Amino acid sequence: MSKRSLIVKLKREAENVRFNNTVKEISDIMDELSAAATGGSARPAQTLEQLFDDSENITR
Question: For the whole prediction, is pTM greater than 0.85?
Answer without folding.
Answer: no
